[in-house]
Amino acid sequence: MPRKTNGNGGHNGGHTPTDLLISEDQHPDFVAGRVDDGSPQAFTPVPDGPIPQPPPLGGPLPFPRPDLPMPGLPRPEPFPFPDRFPPINLCAAVSGRYRLVQPVIGPVLPGPMLPGPIGRPVPVPSIPLNLMRMTVRVDVDRFFPQQRISVELFNLFPRRSSHVIADVTSDQCLGYNNRRVTATISYRDGDAFPGTTLVFEARRTTGLRYGMYRLTVSGGGAVTRSYDLEFESTYFDSVEFEIDRVSNAGTPVTSINTGTHPNRPADLPVETLELTTVYQRAGFAAYYSPGANVIPVSGAAANGTWSDAEMHNAMVTHWSRFANKPQWALWVLFAARHDQGRSLGGVMFDDIGPNHRQGTAIFTDSFIQDAPAGDANAAAWRQRMVFWTAAHEMGHAFNLAHSWQKALGVAGGGPGDPWIPLANEPEARSFMNYPFRVSGGQASFFADFRFRFTDSELRFLRHAPRRFVQMGNANWFVNHNFEAPDALPQSGRWKLAIRPNRAQNRFAFLEPVKLELKLTNAGSEQQAVEHDLLSDGKHISLLIARKGGKARLWAPFMTRCERHEGGSLAPGQSLYGQHFAGATTSGWLIDEPGLYQVQAAVDIDGDIVVSNVLEIIVGTPAGAEEERMAPDWFTEDVARVLAFSGVPELARATDTVRELVERSPASAAAIHGGLALSSPMLRNFKVLGDGDAPELKVISADLDAGVKAQIDLLTKAPDKAAETLGHIDYFGALDSLATTLKDEGDTKRAGDVMTKSVATMKARNVLKSVIDKAERALARLK
Amino acid sequence: MAGVTDGLWGVVLTGTVTIDFQEGFTGDDLEIRAGHHVVARLNPRTRLQTGWAGRSEIAADPGDTLVIALPDTGLETRFAVPADARYILVNRDEHGLRITNTEDEPGYL
Predict the structure, then answer these.
(1) How far apart are CA A434 and CA A426, in angstroms?
(2) pTM of the entire structure?
(3) Burial class (CB in 10 A: 0-12, 13-18, 19+), B89
(4) More exposed terminus of chain B, fewer Cβ within 10 Å: N or C?
(5) Do A343 and B48 touch (CB under 8 A)?
(6) Please, which residues have CB within 8 angstroms of residue A524's CB and are 6 or more apart in sequence?
């Protein structure tokens, strides 16, 4: 159990609650593990039928927790049922949360220095990015087992997530601590998870305890895959409760002795339960915050009662963990009375603002204090009712509905929508039902109430997609795309580097950021690789984040559907590609001054290769003019004009580019702009006319103007142009210009262009093979 | 109707009844009528956290007939104020408006 702190300095005033708590292995609701007699038909539950239990042994199984060694081999003494065939196979409990063990693809690099962006060595984070996360929740024993396995999967490449829940169809103890659980997927959220069948295995390795956990996914035509897991916790998630109280609300009731009121199930274990215990048994590592507060009654304004808005304000002010973001944390307020009056015993008031379900309230001066006339122990009744109310309101914060609202949906979707079709449970003896609403009223309710949630509620709490359950409800994995170094091994077969073609990783404001990717065969043998792996952005996963901001995924403006053309690289040989990383199809990713991080990944036949984390700095505007132009420049249309080297149909964006070129001719952005304005002049450019039946129109080439503009742009200050355009685009533009001139019969100027190109290549230490190719092209012009 | 002729809708009543609107209300116009008089108008909307949509206190005596109507939907129900219950509970479901009553003040959680 998690460490229990009593943040309110003893809420119930006096007794020591945990003194009476029955330890889990002694509790009748706790399933400590599994015993099989070796028969092949061992435990086969029926999904959504009664949940079968292991063979009755007349008490809790003598098993340890999975993180403790199994005691007393070969089996505990005294032997539990000597009159029956003795159990052969003993398996400790396996329920809990597991996570994927990241496979070691190759040797983990200790953090070498790569040749940096031309000249400057850059430390390479050895293990920069986590590309796949998997969390597995196994629920077959411990408290109130639901016979489910759920799996959360997050893939960064390609970027998608999925959540599945599987119904256990077979649970076998095959030997001493050798457990196999088979389950069939019955619920999917997202489509990234393949297969239909899960097999969870837990086995001993060298010691007595479990040492190996594995999940195998198969069926549905998917390739069978196995994932090694590591045990994380006996709980499915952790949650913190902060119990605050208003000064006139009395002492919060956060624990209950289940035996103090005579109206209870005859076999109910007598123990003292904390609110945290209730949620621990529901599957959460629940604990109290030490930061509990006493809130002055003045927070409720003049009338002394509380509105929802006042409670929300109090939560923002007094909750030590308050943040407008999803978190496994809940604020619980004990107040005297709500504005609605004595008829409101408690409420999950927090449906205000962007992050709901963060706060609940219990009203101590309300009808929940009204014990029935003549009750046998009115004080105990009140204590139990307040405790029940607190657990109930907290259940709403976990997104649980009332028992009679299970089938209720909200038009257009909303928090009341059932996550899977559910039936109402109007007679449920649950924290989520009203005691006075069942047949026979509260007396009937408490006569059968066992201080627990129903199975359907437990399945939701434990296995629903976590965004449905977590307080503050938000998108999964936001802000978690960039991993600290040392989280994932790099491929030993390949090395991927991302860099700009410049001495310093600094870009000017408005300058389109172009980055180069270099993939090197780091192995010792020739390796196959797609020829366009780096040149076509469809193969590349590129993440860009402004320091401290959210990571965003880049997508290329254009991909090509080409005939598959294989290729290969010799050891040490490299493949290159360059992309306009500053903008994507939804707009600009790099559009503000500041520090950015960029990281790329490619998938080479299942080998995920990730790059260094490149940090680049974007400078501040050079003057008021740049600042003024920025809103027009950083539009999706301007990005398209630049990405496609001119889109005359986007007239307004083209005008913006032209304006920038005219007003800031010396800027790096003007080189990109000039290229985009002049490139369409080099050929007859087809555009689609307006109207219902648009026709193709041709804008005639203006070769003289186009050639002059490009020669000026590309050859007068070649280093500057090469630096901002990047080597691949720069030399590509020169080659294209030379080809145009040659096609027009102007071989002299074509030769001049290629001569300049070769000279610039040599000056910038371009690969010899590239220079040789350019020189051959030049020779053909002479 | 009990009482004298000088009241809210022509009579002065001696008792009151509390009508709680609970599940199934979405903010539609709702009228409570006694005879031909509309004695209350409200727009109850159920808050899922509590199952409570609103409350109206109506002057009425046991045996009086009240009508609860949702004019825009055509739903309407008529009932006599019971002698032994101070609280009328109204729920709306796929079958229409459902009336129950209780002597004790209903609570919400």
Answers:
(1) 9
(2) 0.62
(3) middle
(4) N
(5) no
(6) A571
> Which residue, chain included where needed, has tokens 């609605």?
A340
> Is the pLDDT assigned to residue B9 strictly greater than 60?
no
**Is residue A114 scored above 50 in pLDDT?**
no
Please tell me if residue B23 touches chain A, with a CB cutoff of 8 Å: yes
At residue A181, the pLDDT reads 97
Q: Which domain holds residue B76?
A: 16-102
Report chain A's terminal Cα–Cα distance, integer Å: 83
CA A734/CA A738 separation, integer angstroms: 6
Over residues A235-287, the pLDDT tens digits come to 999 999 999 999 999 999 999 999 999 999 999 999 999 999 999 999 999 99
What's the CATH code of the domain at B64? 2.60.40
CB contact under 8 A, B106 and A402: no
Report CA B42 to chain centroid distance, whole Å.
Answer: 10
Determine contact, residues A526/A641, Cβ cutoff 8 Å.
Answer: no
Evaluated on CA atoms A531, A535, A541, A546, the torsion sign reads positive
SS3 A478: coil
Q: What are the φ/ψ torsions at residue A268 (nearest 5 degrees)?
A: -65, 125
CA distance A374 to A379: 12
Does residue B21 sit within a domain? yes
Q: How far is A271 from chain B (nearest CA, A)?
A: 25
Chain A residues in contact with B25 (beta carbon < 8 A) = none
Number of compact structural domains in chain B: 1
Residue A642: in which H helix or E strand, if any? helix A636-643
- How far apart CA A609 and CA A109 sit, in angstroms, is 13
Q: In this complex, how many residue pairs, one in chain A and one in chain B, have their CB atoms less than 8 Å apart?
A: 49
Q: If we measure between CA atoms, which residue out of A330, A257, A317 comes closest to residue A289?
A: A330
Q: What's the mean pLDDT in A499-506?
A: 86
- pLDDT band at residue A701 using 50, 70 and 90 as cut-offs: confident
Q: Which of A343, A405, A410 sits opposite B108 (nearest CB)?
A: A343
Main-chain phi, psi angles of A769, to 5 degrees: -65, -35
Is residue B27 domain-resident?
Answer: yes
d(CA B88, CA B100): 6
Mean pLDDT of A621-642: 92
Subunit contact B49:A348, Cβ cutoff 8 A: yes
CA-closest candidate to residue A501, choices A307, A667, A729, A769: A729
Question: For the CA atoms of chain B, what is the radius of gyration?
Answer: 14
Q: Is residue B62 part of a domain?
A: yes
Q: Rounded distance, CA A635 to CA A619, Å?
A: 19
Show Cβ contacts of residue A729 under 8 Å, excluding neighbours closer than 6 positions.
Answer: A514, A578
Q: Which two tokens stand for residue A747?
A: 């071989």
Mean of pLDDT values over A309-315:
89
Closest CA to A34 of A147, A135, A167, A151: A147
Element (H, E) at A382: helix A378-397
Question: Looking at the domain assignment, is residue B90 inside a domain?
Answer: yes
For residues A612 and A505, the answer to whether their CB atoms sit within 8 Å is no
Strand, coil or helix: A521 = strand
Q: In chain A, positions 377-416, which contact chain B (CB-CB < 8 Å)? A: 389, 392-393, 396, 401-402, 404-405, 408, 410, 415-416
Residue A630: both structure tokens together: 């920025």
Strands A594-604 vs A359-363: parallel, antiparallel or unpaired:
unpaired
A344/B49 touch (CB, cutoff 8 Å), yes or no: no
Best probe of the A interface among B49, B86, B89, B102, by most A CBs < 10 A, is: B49
